[in-house]
Fold:
Amino acid sequence: MKLSLSLLTLAVAACLAAPAHAEAPADASTLDTVRVEAERAQRARSANQNVTVLTAADLDAEMANTMEEAIRYIPGVSIVDMGRFGDNGFNIRGLESDRVAITVDGLSLGESVETARSYEFFRGGRGDVDIDTLKSLAVVKGADSISAGSGALGGAVVFTTKDPADYLNPAGNDTHVGIKAGYSGANDETMGTLTFANRTGIVESMLVYTRREGHETESYYDTTNDRTGVGRRTPDPVDSTRDNLLGKLDLQLNEANTLGFMYERGRATNDVDNLSRVYAPGYLTRQGHDTNDRDRYGAHYQWLAENAVFDTLEAQLDRQVTESRGITTITAGSGCPGGAIPCLRSENRSTEQTLDRAALDFTKAFSTGGAQHDLVYGMAWQQRDVDFTAVDSRWNAAGDVASVDVDPRQVPKTDVDNWNVYLRDSVRLFDERLTLSAGARYDRYDYSPQVDSTFVDRTGTVRDVSFASPSWQVGAEFRFLPAHSLWAQVGRGFRAPSVADMYSPTSATTLINAQTGQPLVFNDTVSNPDLSSEKSLNVELGYRWSTDTAQFGLSVFRDRYDNFIEYSTLTQQIPGGFRTTARGPILYERAYTMPTNAGQVTVKGVEMEGRVQFNDAWSARLAASYSEGKKQNGDPLESIVPASAVLGVRYAPSAVWNVTAAVTHAAAKHADDAYTTAANGTVSTPAWLDKADGYTVLDLFGSWNISEQWRVSAGIYNLTNREYYLWQRVRGVYQGSNTLYGYVNDEGIGRYSEPGRNARITVAFNW
Structure:
């Protein structure tokens, strides 16, 4: 475990120099209050019954530095670091990537854009959100398109960022300054966060700045026999930096009107030494320089009107610009311009997405007879501009530029306009023993691609497209005894096709018909302007038991997904036939590929969670999840995460200190849950299925409130130093000797193992 302490040393020194007056640290009762308030806020935005909310206090207690660490104790949910281009997006109940909606303060993150995966030149992420800016992270399981919009097929991840009021006293002028420093052994990361919040008169302001410096996430192994190529057992070296600044300014104009402004700036850089893809004579060296920038700024207005039409009005204007760039520089030992070796080449790929959004949201609470209504409704307009560029440069052995080529775009420059309206009502009856909820939303999307010299469409299939998609959700909860209730919900979710789904590169081949001597144009890949949005129908039943000292919940679900967008192999019919050679056979058709709504998937499972407070000091939490999925042809859905359970036992004898032991157990992935049947009937399983053989991991972490100002948190993760692999990480890794495509052998798979025993520590000072 390497140790880089530059940031940690500076931050601790700043803490030691700080003045010694502070507000009290949050004790257990304060954390419970914060949790309840966050859950109430989340329910105001979502009627989904299956929501897990992690507050800032939860994230601090577990010292989460990445999204993978933040959700590691939520069974049925995963996100994994895939190496050079970071994580692969959230996986909820087997649905992943763009099929899980992600929003930040109501604004959607970007779409995924990826070039040929096997070459690993580029993958544009959806955007980077820093943990230390979050007030809450809500994981919604099941369709919730009414709140989260497109992409909420299997669920959604809803981020809510901090506000100045979160740090300040409820009333009066106040100032808060906080400093936090930390170290994580899993990726040798040091971090520091500086927070400033102030209220002066009607003005509330806040700045949160975080700097992170780290390296590659370690594997179980710290040595390797093969430094390069398919046998490299340790991850490729990475130097990473991340800077994030969140600023907010709120003006309390009067008791009823608030005007606010915000700006967020994120900059992430990874420098990768791609040793695992180095091979002679092709790639003598290969480095990656990857950046991910996100700028978000906006204004919001809230009016507490309490009139006949609405109680509150919230207006929001936002702009978000996300730019991802991957530059791969290679020293080549073959194929050099002029023939002399070695030479340099570079592949420069980037995507930029600009999202503008305007939204109006209303709430209204009222009574009709014995019923209490909580009504929410609103509308929004947004425009997403997606652009992609690729530039290939070549140098000869003397170092002179041989060529600079602008490649055809991965997707055409496209404008996507969307508007939506929604309405949802929650009704409480019979002294609030029965709660009924129902809501509906309507979306329309208009795609306008730009076909030009950098995106050539020889197939003639790329054109403007419009489509509309309704979604809805109904639910009920009945408290049949004071501590016992049953609930049910049914929801229809959707995902609009992404720009990559609609307009990935089209191509055609021209052949000479040997029969006639005339040219024939054959499609290779074409776009599909007739695609429909993907749909989900989520049905879930649940039971809850809740007392002052214990809670228990059990739910069963069945989710059906229709219109899955997949690349299908089709045939182009040629009337009269053709010959490719003078004496060859007459052919009447030729295969090509096209995205189609070809897939249907069914996922079903069971989830359980329980908490108990044994006494003032001891408490425990147990959560478990099991699911299975099948495709339309009967094959299993390979992206389903194996069954898992988490048991946490906490000892907190006072508000001064606490310690938690968390045991995570995951079942093995078996061949009957991970196979693919080809069109010719051939059945195959992933190469490294045997590595996902299940595991049990013990983590130990806690915190110590040294004084009213100081708080220290520390933890040891994978305490027993268990070697294990995550299914969601190894399922896409190929076995073999082809270094160019990132294959691995029996030794090289070791770099995809999880970190061994590692430690984290954070030190926080507030005044």
Q: What stands out?
A: The chain is about 5% helix and 55% strand. The longest helix spans residues 28-45. The first strand starts at residue 51 and ends at 55. Helices lie at 6-16, 28-45, 56-61, 67-70, 145-148, 499-503, 727-730.
